[in-house]
## 1
Amino acid sequence: MAAIELRSATKKFATADGGTYTALKDISLTVEDGEFCAVVGPTGCGKSTTLTLVSGLERASAGAVLVRGEPVTGIDTSTGFVFQQDAVFPWRSVLDNVAAGPTYRGARRSEAHALARDWLRRVGLTGFEDRYPHQLSGGMRKRVALAQTLINQPRVLLMDEPFSALDVQTRAIMSTELLHLWDETKPAVIFVTHDLEEAIALADKVVVLTAGPGTVKAEFRIDLPRPRVVQEIRFDPRFTRLYEQIWEALRSEVQEAYDRTTRVTQVAS
Amino acid sequence: MKDSTAGGLVQDSPTDPAPTDATPTVLTRPGDAKPARSRVRPGALLHRSWVLFLLRTGIVVVLLGAWQIGVDTKAIDKFFWGEPVGVWQQLVDWVTIGTSQGSLLDQILVTLEEAVLGFVIGSVLGIVCGIALGRIRLLSELFGPFLKAANSIPRIILGSIFTVAFGFGVQSKIILAVVLVFFGVFFNAFQGTREVDRNLIANAQLLGASRWRVTRDVVLPSAFTWILASLHISFGFALIGALVGEILGANQGLGLLIRSSQNNFTMDGVLAGMVLVAVIALTAEALITVLENRLLRWRPPQSHGGAAVK
Ligand SMILES: Nc1ncnc2c1ncn2[C@@H]1O[C@H](COP(=O)(O)OP(=O)(O)OP(=O)(O)O)[C@@H](O)[C@H]1O
Ligand SMILES: [Mg+2]
């Protein structure tokens, strides 16, 4: 039984002018338990939308979305979601932000705090427990969000460009760290990114989506050996070969998406 | 008046927040009353604030002086307009001799009790109802039109009814203050609840929060910026409720003091009463600002908000 399964899922949004906009069209995707799946695709192709379907925040307009064999009918708290935008609670200290999950799940305050301290250490934020989010850098806030989600040890982990706010160096370190953390509990992961190198370095499988409406264009198995060190793996010759193959599939979609946006602006101007 | 998005329940036009009861309550936007923090050297800041203080004092002295001179030279009729020296004398008399209704402190305490109780009860009701209607769609659809209608009537008139129905004691004043405070707080709490970042709610739900926990842990704190903005002017409303209630009929209180001064044609007494009310209002405003800064500690310093009146 697959951990995550989308069967010809379609998502339509109502638009302001009364019509509908198809963000995803007949997308089919399977992620096994313990598998790390990266999703790449041009901007606006429906990557975030895919994650909202799997998390139960949105319902598919057609097709089926299954998590561990069960159709998704609402928010499932065994799913973890690291949002693309900042979603840490600005009025909670860093410690209380990370402790939120365990507290909501009925842990006592002291237990939740002890657990949160441990996770702050793992994401390298020891010493920042009492800060408020606005007193942190963008990268630190992302790490708080990561700890906040991982502390619940989700069986299904959805991440929407979690490292896009980080500089290249921190990003590589955090990616390696993420692989360690993932290795401990082995959830099924969908990791959305714009960065193809990052996708290949992290994932077991890279899925390329088409320009919107998004559907799966191609899937690539990444058989690079684990454990991987993200900073070094890109020098592997197999890495370069995979990169070229996947980029070949992605390039036309990115071009297509880009052309479309510029075309629209030309008409508008 | 145009309807805004939030179910047509909230008026969206930014208007003068002065407590004029004839117009319906409008939203007070967060940040309206929030002083912009400046980033100047502490030394320079201290110097600046001293200069400002001296200038402000100068303005007051000049105005009061001009008024007094006007009265002394008979340009201003003190029968109608009073005079600064007389106002001061009246205050001294009230403090040393007492008022016709008993000691001055008692009058102040009665009015304060009415205003504070009205403020607290009205605010709590406003917050609870605002959040409940903001969170539960059915409730807002059901009660929205009634609240809008109630908001559009001049509520000060209710004072007459309350005075007749609840008597000359503090009760009728408290109820009037509650009614005046409720709407401002309610509309702000409602709007604040609607403005909560949907991502934060989604995040809390995924982290395992129940609906009640989402309301308590996400909606309430994030709506608080809106709610606190309305509390600033709400105490003013509460004070108006208490004073008007007293003027309409009471045994005690500053409003009655002002009323009896008016009946005796001592304008100095009316003005002295106003001075006392102003002191109360400013003190309350300062306390609410302290509360705001404590509750909103988590907020980054505001860079927008324009020049605030301190
Ligand atoms: N709530 C919504 N209502 C209407 N349209 C929406 C909504 N959410 C997303 N869309 C549209 O669906 C499309 C896909 O959006 P989505 O956020 O999934 O893109 P994305 O692939 O995550 O893009 P990016 O890489 O820039 O984050 C976009 O064209 C967007 O405008
Ligand atoms: Mg996205």
## 2
Amino acid sequence: MDIKDIIKPENLVYKKTDHMTDKVLSYCPGCGHGTAHRILMEVIDEMGVRADTIGVAPVGCSVLAYDFMNIDMQGAAHGRAPAVATGIKRCWPDKFVFTYQGDGDLAAIGTAETIHACNRGENITILFINNGIYGMTGGQMAPTTLEGMRTTTSPYGRDLESMGNPIKITELIANLPGVHYVTRQAVHTPRYVRRTKKAIFKAFDIQKNKKGLSFVEIVSNCNSGWKMTPNQSNIWMEDNMFPYYPLGDIKVDGKIINE
Amino acid sequence: MAKVIGAIVVDEEHCKGCEVCVVACPTQVIGMTDRVNSKGYHIAYMETPESCTGCANCAIVCPDGVITVYKMKKEA
Ligand code: SF4
Ligand code: SF4
């Protein structure tokens, strides 16, 4: 059989959603940000809520998210996305409002905004991409950097005594009563991409039903910052990030899951 | 017996050569070209097209969304 016979419009099973723009992503080869963007846009596409969705972009590697997500977007000052999203949602309670933030944005400079938006139980969705490093600025130590992990500002590895512990902000947030759904996922293999997409669907559904805040963490790679090839970084992530940041639901229907 | 056969099309200019699709393919279809695109990246391509089932695993993990997947029934 000739390949040309297969490549016909009627045989199409997958193509990039038009909810992503045609701009070339500014991310490094193999970076999970691109996958996370795309599945988020697929959810909005499949729910048919493009005209009713407003996203808030962070500062960090994904600062240009509004260039790539072909929907209404708003930029926010570093870490302030949940505060900006709060304002948008209160003006437009029937719109879907989400923030897309990295670990430096959400768990360092934006800690106050994150915690208070969650504590108020704003009816928004927060997508949190945790790759344990400041990628855009050149691979410095982040609050989520693992013990012993080398970065440009922890060249001998993160030392807990002088630098503190990697923060499990997602578990912290799960303890706040306003938060309805908290889950931790990944996007480096087909299986996890499918699961994460389901989690984002669920988060948007919670928002639709006005049940409170939903928080989806995606543990991801930063192959450039970690100084590995993309596939090496994904294996390293499984071996090192997942034991400390275990995947799965943390809070469902407003109740913490005790395993 | 009818079986399915798939095919992928890679947007060559926008592939970043990361090889995430290579390990994601359950039937080891994908290889990387020796030639590079204008950005200097090696490009993913179907090395063994006859093994492609059109499962789209490669496409859903491609961070840059440059893979399009087709599939059809094959007469045995
Ligand atoms: S569609 Fe499936 S079988 Fe075909 S190349 Fe992609 S991952 Fe491999
Ligand atoms: S995953 Fe996408 S960008 Fe990476 S090598 Fe494959 S086709 Fe190219």
